[in-house]
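Morning run. Coffee first, then this:
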Amino acid sequence: MALTSGLQVDQVTVRFGSHIAVDDVSLTLGAGQVLAVLGPSGCGKSTLLRAVAGLERPSAGRIFFDGEDLAGIAVHKRGFALMFQDGQLFDHLSVAGNVEYALRVRGQRSPKRVAELLELVGLAGYSDRSPTTLSGGERQRVALARALAASPRLLLLDEPLSALDPTLRARLAHDLREILVATGTTAVMVTHDHEEAFAVADAMALMRSGRLVQSGGLNEVWAAPVDEEAALFLGYSSVVDGSVLGQAPGPMALRRSALVVSSDGALSGVVKSVRGTPELTRLEVEVRGVGVVAAVAAASVGVLAGQEVRLTLDRTRTARVGAVS
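And here it is:
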């Protein structure tokens, strides 16, 4: 049964000849929620987004929005907006002209609306600027304002921040989250960056080789990765058997700070490498019966390569792989 509110993807498959790009994917997204579709390059996430937009026709399955079957509904009649990683601005138009373009194609014109949107994305006073004079982050903010101009029913974001440097990407991801919440926009964002997904979205769908391998709320997926590959892709540093750490048997995912140098630690190992940061020291330690794993020490603790150290496990920095959260 189709949802009466939000997006529903029902057993959708997309084929290109003999290649199956999206394989029997089903997911739902409530109104006003943000979903991150996460996976490595070539996993089918962008193809899924294009199918929702109407740019690719599913070979099987159906897509609904607010209970309406989108089959046969043209791209421009779906009431969706798309934003790509390069923004695709019109350099011959001013910043305001780019934002207003989304209104003009719908027979609307509202300088007030344009000004409101530019203020929303942090570009008040940029109306008369040429896009060619803007930084990458500023261009993406203009693209976002343009995408929001006509109050789309659904905003589709295809790797919107991937072309930016890491510092700018983190800042814009935070701002993007605030803007989507402030406008109550329902959105699907495709990304290969787990940190970006956690910064922007409410829920996550992990794809691999065209298939959906796990979906749910951010905390739900983070707390119980479906398998080792999912855990490593989400940012855990390693997966080991819990029994070698004095825990219950079974695969356990460790964050880079799960093992901490401590004089009374139950584990011991030899430091293989040391890297200092302003807040702590990051180590690689060969632990007996475990192998080489990441660990941390307080910045005030002097640790050298080749030194034997004792480690304690911070259970709050671990997750049971394949467990039900």
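The helical segments are 45-53, 95-104, 111-120, 136-148, 166-183, 194-200, 218-223, 228-233. Good start to the day.
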